[in-house]
Amino acid sequence: MSTSPISRIPRIGYGWDSHEFQPGVPLKIGGVTLPHHSGLAGHSDGDVLLHALTDALLGAIAAGDIGTYFPPSDPKWKGADSALFVREALRLVDEAGYQIGNLDSTLILAAPKIGPHAEAIQKNVAELLGIEPSRVSIKAKTPEGMGTDNAAIAHVAVLLCEISWP
Ligand SMILES: [Zn+2]
Prior knowledge:
The chain is of the alpha+beta class and 166 residues long. Helices cover 25% and strands 31% of the residues. It has one domain: CATH 3.30.1330.50.
């Protein structure tokens, strides 16, 4: 591991993603299946929050984005569990000598309401990342005046801290 002073500076990461709703597909957000008539179409299982999180983690260590490692054109990733992408990004973060300080997220979608599920999503994302739920923030808004009622959007910011060795 590099011991240059620059490696001691915390690193910020940011990721954004969107997917279109499609009837008859299970809705997965943050690895939690939510009761809804439509799910999210597109890359893998369409988990917009885990995709934005993967991009935030990769962005924080300047290691490209989700498409660099898991191209949507590869049929291998069709329907794949997005937790896989987060785990790989987390492995790269660890390899770079960093750990997650905290993460903050905002979901933007017209329906379903995220409030009743926010705690379950927070717990699941924290477990996936191996950190306490208090380091994971899940917020949600409706897309007022955006004309994106048929899409789910996720923004994620993460702060990485250097792994401190005993
Ligand atoms: Zn995506």
